[in-house]
Write a structure and sequence with these properties.
By secondary structure, the protein is mostly helical. It is built from five helices and no strands. The longest helix is centred in the middle third of the chain and has 21 residues.
């Protein structure tokens, strides 16, 4: 539930960012979507990407995005990935 709330917040805050950032958001959200599907958890990939990009544009929130992206990249399995904040 916390992961879904974070993703929703992330999606709401992240839209329209530079291509480089969009790519990392797209990759991160794709991994989350694949795990959500595997675990049968609700996840809106396009909403995730939009929120991620929006958050990443805000210099004060970018560190939180960096932390989340790094967590997703390091997650050893889907359950760990979906626990990333």
């Amino acid at each position: 539930m916390r992961a879904a709330s974070f993703v929703t917040l992330l999606v709401a805050l992240l839209s329209a960012c530079p291509g480089r950032v969009r790519s990392r958001c797209a990759r991160t959200c794709a991994k989350e979507a694949a795990c959500a599907e595997e675990l049968r958890v609700e996840h809106d990939r396009s909403e995730c990407v939009e929120a991620c990009n929006t958050l990443d544009r805000d210099p004060s929130l970018r560190p939180a995005v960096d932390q989340h992206v790094n967590c997703v990249e390091r997650a050893g399995d889907c359950r760990a990935l979906l626990e990333c904040e």
